[in-house]
């Protein structure tokens, strides 16, 4: 079994050069799905005109964003630059959202550097007409830490609403088992714990998510080459709770295409974007791969194995591959 057949595609320039000829979008272009109306834009999230063009007058009921966290894994700006960058894509998000809508933002906190950029981002959000609703923590199964500090095993998710936002979360939306013992109270002359009083076999999700498996290479939904892939289950939980059936969901940082795939599975339309043609192509291919096979990702394979079957071997041997000829194919979608 191959372990991670592709390295991080955001940092490996030589690998990207081999993949780029197989990407159907150039900067500024938008792919429109002929079947369900999804859109994938190769655009900058801070470009107001590009976001407006992709939306084409549609207003989303939900936005889910997973921007780079400004930690060592990515190009690091100083905090002021990072917040100014966030201010621009937040303004574009606001313009694309309906008056009654929800906004979820994954954002990290560097515990070695004053927890930036999380507190600065929270203050920034006060400039926008969103109401803070919850601070969700998702637990990672594997930690990244030190012998001289607590192991970091959490990811932060901020939840905001605008107007009278849709929200519908019930116990049946989850498969969280009743295993955690909780508070008790006196019922008659008997002290009962919450596990005894509830009739459901499951519990509704709170704002600490401990039941979701972190994505790794042995999982079917793994998308090799994507560094910060979010589990499909957590995105589907957000969509089911905060986007009515048939509504539009916005994601300006597509990366592995998880929001696009979740919307396809749940009957919502997704408008998603990425500034990088490689990740736009991965998102589109993941949708097409799901429709063709029912698979959620590529596990130990990768999205470009048909065109570049020897790519993994060349990475292992550090041997560059020549650009192969690209055959014309019928694409289920269009560009505008």
Give a verbal description of the structure.
This protein is α/β, with parallel strands linked by helices. It has one domain (13-169, 205-335): Vaccinia Virus protein VP39 (Rossmann fold). The protein has 9 helices and 12 strands. Helix 2 (48-55) runs parallel beside helix 3, helix 6 packs across helix 7 (258-266) and helix 7 packs parallel to helix 8 (277-293). The protein starts with 12 loop residues before the first helix and ends with a strand. The model is unreliable at 70-74 and 319-336 (pLDDT under 50).
Question: What's this model, at a glance?
Answer:
This protein has 336 residues and is α/β, with parallel strands linked by helices. It is built from nine helices and twelve strands.
Which SSEs are present, and which pair or pack?
Blueprint: H1 13-19, E1 30-32, E2 39-41, H2 48-55, E3 60-65, H3 79-96, E4 97-106, H4 118-124, E5 131-144, E6 152-162, E7 184-187, E8 190-193, H5 194-197, E9 208-209, H6 232-242, E10 248-251, H7 258-266, E11 269-273, H8 277-293, H9 311-317, E12 334-335
Parallel strand pairs: 2-11, 3-4, 3-10, 5-9, 10-11
Antiparallel strand pairs: 1-2, 1-12, 4-6, 5-6, 7-8
Helix pairs in contact: 2-3, 6-7, 7-8
């Amino acid at each position: 079994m191959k372990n991670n057949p592709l390295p991080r595609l955001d940092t490996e320039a030589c690998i990207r050069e081999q993949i780029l000829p197989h990407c159907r979008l150039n900067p500024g272009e938008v792919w429109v799905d002929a079947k369900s109306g999804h859109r994938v834009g190769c655009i900058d999230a801070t470009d107001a005109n590009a976001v407006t063009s992709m939306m084409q007058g549609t207003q989303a009921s939900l936005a889910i964003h997973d921007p780079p966290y400004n930690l060592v894994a990515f190009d690091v700006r100083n905090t002021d630059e990072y917040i100014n960058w966030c201010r621009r894509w937040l303004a574009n998000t606001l313009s694309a959202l309906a008056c009654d809508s929800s906004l979820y933002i994954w954002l990290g906190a560097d515990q070695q550097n004053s927890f930036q950029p999380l507190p600065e981002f929270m203050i920034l959000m006060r400039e926008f007409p969103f109401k803070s609703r919850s601070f969700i923590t998702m637990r990672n199964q594997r930690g990244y830490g030190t012998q001289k500090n607590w192991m970091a095993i959490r990811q932060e998710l901020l939840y905001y609403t605008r107007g009278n936002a849709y929200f519908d979360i019930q116990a049946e939306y989850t498969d969280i088992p009743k295993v955690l013992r909780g508070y008790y109270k006196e019922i008659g002359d008997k002290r009962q714990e919450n596990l005894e009083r509830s009739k459901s076999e499951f519990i509704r999700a709170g704002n600490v998510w401990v039941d979701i498996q972190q994505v790794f290479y042995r999982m079917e939904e793994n998308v090799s080459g994507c560094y910060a892939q979010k589990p499909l289950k957590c995105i589907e939980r957000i969509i089911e709770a905060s986007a009515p059936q048939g509504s539009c969901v916005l994601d300006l940082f597509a990366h592995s295409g998880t929001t696009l795939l979740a919307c396809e599975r749940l009957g919502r339309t997704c408008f998603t974007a990425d500034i990088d043609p490689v990740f736009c192509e991965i998102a589109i291919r993941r949708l097409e791969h799901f429709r063709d096979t029912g698979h959620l990702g590529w596990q130990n394979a990768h999205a470009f194995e048909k065109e570049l079957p020897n790519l993994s071997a060349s990475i292992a041997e550090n041997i560059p591959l020549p650009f192969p000829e690209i055959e014309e194919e019928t694409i289920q979608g269009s560009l505008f």
